[in-house]
Each structure stands twice: as C-alpha cells, then as structure tokens.
Amino acid sequence: METKEEYNLVKHTCKGLGITYNQLGLFIGYGENSISNASRGDVSKAMKKAIELYTETLKLKKELENSDKIKATLKEWLK
What residues does each domain of the chain span? Predict the structure, then answer.
C-alpha cells in the first residue's frame, strides 16, 4: 500500500494524462499555483473530487468514442 508521500493525486494524474499542472488547473477550474501547491502537500477534498470527475469524464468520452466506432463499423457491415 502506498503512503501519502509515495502517492500524490495531482502528480499521478498529470503524469498519467501527459499534461502539465497548468493544463490540469485549466481543465478542472483551479489556478496553476493551487495545483502546484497541491502537488507538494495535501489535496483538498474539492480538488480531489474535481480531478476524479475530470478523469471519469475522460474515460467515459473514450468509451463513447469507441462505441461510436463500433456502431459505424456495424453499419458498414450491414450494408
């Protein structure tokens, strides 16, 4: 199990998405300074929820995109 020091939600999210702190801040409505500070300490409950909602939205958009591709492929096959 990772300790608080080993796991930081902001760092993990930015690294996983390949984005900067500034970009994450823009996506979730926080300033770069707030994001940078959170990367060095505790992430507020509100910021944690915003990050969780943002990553869930990205996941759902990807799933929808994949479903649309499958739907288009099926339409082509059924012609």
Answer: 9-77
